[in-house]
Amino acid sequence: MMEKTSCDVVYGCDYRSGKQLKVTISEGIIRYIEEHTPSDGNIKQIIAPGLVDLQVNGFAGIDLNSSPLSYSAVRELAARLWSEGVTTFFPTVITNSEANIFQSVKSIAEACSLYPEVRMTIGGIHLEGPFISPEEGPRGAHPAEFIQPPNWELFCRWQEASEGLIKLVTLSPEWPLSGEFIKKCVRSGIIVAIGHTAATPDAIRSAVESGATMSTHLGNASHQMLPRHRNYIWEQLAADELHVTMISDGFHIPDAMLKIFLKVKPEKTILVSDSTMFAGMKPGNYSTHIGGNVTLTDTGKLHIQGKPDVLAGSGLPLLHCVNTLIQKNLLSPAEAWELASIRPAAFIGNYQCHSFSIGAPADIVIMELNNTGYRILKTIKSGKTVFERVHHSK
User: Fold this and answer.
1) Are 42 and 63 contained in the same domain?
2) What pTM value is reported for the model?
3) Cβ pair 147, 139 in contact under 8 A
4) pLDDT tier at 187, thresholds 50, 70, 90
């Protein structure tokens, strides 16, 4: 992990308006934002709020669901994500044995206690499972032997081990008494998302009425064939209360579905990476304790070996998802960036931290825009430079 240095003044073009700005930072807070015309020519760099990823299973060889998970691995993961422009992320713990989930969330909490920069970077833990559908298709790559109904007492033990860090839970409301579990989560300040589900439309509606407010990577982890009218995807799209997260890496869902999500929920669509440990690694064949033998292609597609049409998770970071929307002309660069920064921050109740405004914490990225999309040059977390590319344009 690089040595962090204070950053007092930052220059760049506003990612929205293109205006040249001078941003003054003090004690980790944005104090002033002023228009600024440099004497030595125009500023080419772009300045924007940092990315916020609500679903990170791993990155660059670090697997949050391996056992035992070390707190040093969590620290290294945070540093790797800084290089991708991510200033806040939710480490995502998926379906596993009760003991392994306990150990994973405890190690994440220990990393937060030991390293202040990690605690500032982790917005909370995302518990994705084990309270999901056991059916083939909806359960995705989650191991079937550990799937179980929602269990509040068990969840409370994990929450205690995490020191209260579990802030987001993905479950399937097809289980009896799911509504009561959702209500208890909401009363405890925990966001509930619907995902990996085979629930009926009525069960989806009941979950929303109980307090569920998000759909986890909608369109993925589902059956190959669904009833054409009444199914859990349409029902979630129709629910005005639900935000939708989607993986726009070019592989998980087709362009037509991306367009539909953006049109139906223009203010409630959020990008997530759902990245695995293979994101950021070299192309090749690998073996994993969850998905078995997998292949990472040179385009970043991660699939089961010998089965290129069966995905094995995500092999790309959140920045790539942003750039995919730009390359496909589905959104403007600024709009695509906000779906992965301001939008998720607002959803988790932390808009001020990523609003790029006076008084907000200085979670900032400096980048350039080329024909492939954004490229990160510098990442600033709470006023400290935590990543800087060695060679970049001035």
Assistant:
1) no
2) 0.95
3) yes
4) very high
CA-closest candidate to residue 129, choices 138, 142, 116: 142
Residues 6+ apart with CB under 8 A from 35: 19, 20, 21, 22
Question: Residue 236 CB: number of other CB atoms within 10 A?
Answer: 27
| Domain that residue 225 falls in | 50-350
42 and 118 in a single domain? The answer is no
pLDDT tens, position by position, 102-153: 999 999 999 999 999 999 999 999 999 999 999 999 998 899 999 999 999 9
Six-digit token string for 394: 């001035």
Q: How far apart are the first and last CA of the chain?
A: 24
**Mean pLDDT value of segment 30-48:** 84
Q: Has residue 156 been placed in a domain?
A: yes
CB atoms under 10 Å from CB of 327, counted, come to: 14
Distance of alpha carbon 229 from alpha carbon 204, whole angstroms: 14
What phi-psi label fits residue 244: left (phi over 0), alpha (psi between -120 and 50 degrees) or beta? Answer: beta
DSSP three-state, residue 350 = coil
Confirm if 345 and 353 have CB atoms less than 8 A apart. yes
